Automatic annotation (TrEMBL):
Keyword Cell inner membrane applies: no
Keyword list, A-Z: ATP-binding, Ion transport, Nucleotide-binding, Transport, Zinc, Zinc transport
Family named by the database record: Belongs to the ABC transporter superfamily.
NCBIfam families (UniProt xref): PRK15056.1
Signal peptide: none
GO biological process, one term: zinc ion transport
GO molecular function: ATP binding; ATP hydrolysis activity
Name of protein: Manganese/iron transport system ATP-binding protein
Domain ABC transporter: 21-256
SUPFAM superfamilies per record: P-loop containing nucleoside triphosphate hydrolases
Superkingdom: Bacteria
InterPro entries cross-referenced by the UniProt entry: AAA+_ATPase (IPR003593), ABC_transporter-like_ATP-bd (IPR003439), ABC_transporter-like_CS (IPR017871), Metal_Ion_Import_ABC (IPR050153), P-loop_NTPase (IPR027417)
Length: 292
């Protein structure tokens, strides 16, 4: 895991290397002619939590859509565990945990039904769940601590509980690659910690989590790798290598609030586009956050 070879760009990785997710020279153009991603390349090994970071409109959702097969790459290739996207989707290898805004919460559906959707890919067209499907749903709900809510309407849950239900859907599917779109928005610190702990457990099982987030401050704590996007991949690799002041300033330009405290060796810069700022020491290394 985390062999130095993976820190190199996908374009330079040896062709025989099988990555969790490998994006090579991908360009995506929407029907209206807008090119949202240009020549994007990176590779993430299995057993990794990777952050996908960039300003609004930098192409994070577009990249997710390309990995999910919702939009086609005009150029380049995406492979998942060494398979092209259609083959990976057919094997139920990829799951998506959506942003809250993408879901119609008034739709009357029970928590256990949402989680059962993760099993659809394994059922025939009648979608009649078998014992194994019910067992997988129960295990997934248990793992995210939502068993007691299984017969509740999804619309009755809090933001953090909804996230956990969609994570349970990905677990019921037994996805090897899980794409999480802003998993911490509207989630309290305790739930965020619980989700991070869960992601660490999934990493230990060799899964890949690609997490789109604006929480710069929490990324060094739980994401081993980072992909910095700005219509293309500005940098990718180990978070400690990618999270430099220079890279972040290139990715965020004037968007970040930027303050400097102290002077000389004790100087700390704060970069933030959200409520959890990233602190950088004078040497450019991320500073440890202390909880208040
Ligand atoms: N269906 C579409 N048709 C045309 N252009 C689109 C479409 N979806 C997104 N875009 C454009 O592509 C660019 C990248 O959008 P994308 O949604 O991937 O950004 P993002 O990084 O996910 O942003 P955010 O942080 O706001 O979610 C934007 O300029 C957006 O306007």
């Amino acid at each position: 895991m985390n062999a130095p070879a993976f820190a190199r760009s996908a374009a330079h990785a040896p062709p025989e290397a099988v990555d969790g997710v490998r994006v090579a020279n991908v360009t995506v153009t929407y029907r209206n002619g807008h090119t949202a991603l240009i020549d994007a390349s990176f590779a993430i090994p299995t057993g990794t939590i990777a952050a996908l970071v960039g300003v609004n409109g930098s192409g994070k959702s577009t990249l997710f859509k390309a990995i999910m097969g919702f939009v086609r790459a005009a150029r380049g290739e995406i492979s998942i565990l060494g398979l092209p996207v259609p083959a990976a989707l057919k094997r139920n290898l990829v799951a998506y945990v959506p942003q809250s805004e993408e879901v119609d919460w008034t739709f009357p559906v029970l928590v256990e039904d949402v989680v059962m959707m993760g099993r659809y890919g394994r059922m025939n067209f009648l979608r009649l769940p078998r014992a194994a499907d019910h067992d997988a749903v129960a295990a997934a709900l248990d793992r995210v601590g939502m068993t007691d809510f299984r017969t509740r309407q999804i619309g009755e849950l809090s933001g953090g509980q909804r996230k956990r239900v969609f994570l349970a859907r990905a677990l019921a599917q037994d996805a090897r690659v899980i794409l999480l779109d802003e998993p911490f928005t509207g989630v309290d610190v305790k739930t965020e910690e619980a989700i991070i702990e869960l992601l660490r457990g999934l990493r230990a099982e060799g899964r890949v989590m690609l997490v789109s987030t604006h929480d710069l401050g929490s990324i060094p704590e739980f994401c081993d790798r980072t992909v910095l996007l700005k219509r293309t991949v500005l940098a990718s690799g180990l978070t400690s290598d990618v999270f430099t002041r220079e890279n972040l300033e290139r990715a965020f330009g004037g968007v970040l609030r930027h303050m400097t405290f102290g002077s000389g060796d004790g100087e700390v810069a704060m970069l933030s586009d959200e409520e959890r700022p990233l602190l950088l020491k004078a040497d450019g290394e991320p500073a440890k956050r202390t909880e208040t």
